[in-house]
Amino acid sequence: MIVPLLDYLNHATTPNCVVTGYHDKVQDTSFVILQALKDIEAGEQLVINYGNLPNTHLVQKYGFTLKDNPEKKLLTSIPFRELEEFTYEEHKLKSEVANSLGLAFQP
Fold first, then answer.
1. CA distances from 80 to 35, 77, 93 (A)
2. 86-103: per-residue pLDDT in tens?
3. 83 φ, ψ to 5°?
4. Residue 53 CB neighbours (<10 A)
5. Under a CB-based contact definition with an 8 Å cutoff, are residues 47 and 11 in contact?
6. Coil, strand, or helix at residue 20?
7. How far apart (Å, rounded) are the C-alpha atoms in residues 7 and 66?
8. pTM, full prediction
9. Most buried in the list 10, 95, 97, 101, measured by CB within 10 Å?
10. DSSP characters for 32-83?
């Protein structure tokens, strides 16, 4: 959702405000609330937290990364369809070994 002016808010790990959506069912109106989390000095930048996201997500969605990002994750795509026959072969082998040892094998 893009909200005029609120899309200018930058990310911070310790934000000074938060944006929440609200829908009034009685009046059937929706609006967005910008709420300060602390006293904000004149001229201080308003910042929100975009979420605990890895740099791969931040750069794709927002165009920036964090130098010391605590969310050290790597988003990747694995072509499981291409590996399917290997998975079934491994599965079959594990099942045969378990059976030969008299063990139950739960895939």
1. 45, 9, 19
2. 566 666 777 777 778 777
3. -95, 0
4. 19
5. yes
6. strand
7. 19
8. 0.58
9. 95
10. EEEEESS---TTPPPEE---S--HHHHHHHTS---TT-S---------HHHH
Answer for the pair 48, 17: CB distance below 8 angstroms, yes or no: yes
Sign of the C-alpha dihedral computed for residues 32, 37, 41 and 47 taken in this order: negative
Tokens 């910008």 correspond to what residue? 34
Closest CA to 53 of 64, 43, 44: 64
Residue labelled with tokens 């300060």:
36
Structure tokens at 37: 């989390």
d(CA 83, CA 87): 6
Ordered by start, the domain boundaries in the chain are: 6-65, 77-107
CA distance 49 to 53: 10
How confident is the model over 58-96, as pLDDT tens digits?
A: 888 888 888 888 887 666 666 666 666 656 666 677 777
Query: Alpha-carbon distance 8 to 17, whole Å?
Result: 13
